[in-house]
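for the writeup, i need someone to sanity check this before i put it in the appendix. the sequnce is what the collaborator sent (i think, or maybe the updated version? ugh). structure was predicted straight from it, no edits. if anything looks off just tell me and ill rerun, i have time this weekend
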Amino acid sequence: MDRGVLDTSVIVKSIFKPPKSLSSESYKRELETHEKCRIIIKKLEERDVDVYIPKVCVVETAAVVKRLADRNFAMKISKGVLDSYEIVSEDILFDSAWAIATDTGCSGFDSYFIALAKIKNAVLLTDDGRMHFHAKEVGVDSVLIREMDFKGIENKLKAGS
């Protein structure tokens, strides 16, 4: 893979371990997903993959991290996202995102990530099942992190590099 789009779910799950209040089965799955997301972020950087995110991802990351931690950590993480990836503005994505939203009925946020992956011909990396479903629906190469094992992730990241 030489181009990827990171969904907020991957960024956030790479940082936070799941709450222990989950059922043991869910906790085990989410802890494994946390580790997969950490590896993905690390491997993307090591392999110098072009990683894109829609500008709205910075805002969404800040909001989620604030809910899970505090304002200072939310500022630190969202600033890190802003500085670490190629940010693509709404101006470039709007028409495609709008078309995807009206064609699929996916959420507004999801339509921006899917549109970006489509425009950049990039692999969408997500742990959001609905986003993954809608991405596939419009022909975007999408990886649903929780459904892929470590070896599969490694192979996907190597492909095309």
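The mean pLDDT is 95. Residues 54 and 104 are 19 Å apart (CA to CA).
thx in advance!!
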